[in-house]
Predict the 3D structure of the following.
Amino acid sequence: MLALHDRRFGRANIDHIAVAPSGVYVIDTKRHRGKIKVRRPLFGGPSLTIAGRDRTKLIAGLDRQVAYVRAAITDVAPDVPVHGCLCFITPEGFLAEVGLPLLRTLKVNGHPLYRPARLVKRLNRPGPLGPGRAFDIEAVLARRLPPA
């Protein structure tokens, strides 16, 4: 797996971009205290709350980052999937409050919510990208997405 860190994205930044055998991953790292919940109401889209506050806007930001990275490699690797995920590095209450099952991962709008160990497992899964192609994609991303 190859990784780029802290890449410019408009006035913000993309925390991490990993090129793994199964595709490109845009990883938005969060350090929040408090309980993390995913709510799925009968009407409307799912929401993400952290410590009782609505943090669904984090998902909208991740959507924009994924689209930006996808656009950066479309001409050289249109067949390579680009995934987005949130990685909570201080997940106090994460397992208990969200009820995170051991055998599946919760998602909001298709974006998984990971703890670091779970994300590492996902990135290390086999896939169609060989080392040579992964290195080429990483080089293109490094050129097109400058450090922040």
Residues 93-100 have pLDDT under 50 and may be disordered. The longest strand covers residues 12-20. Residues 69 and 78 are 12 Å apart (CA to CA).
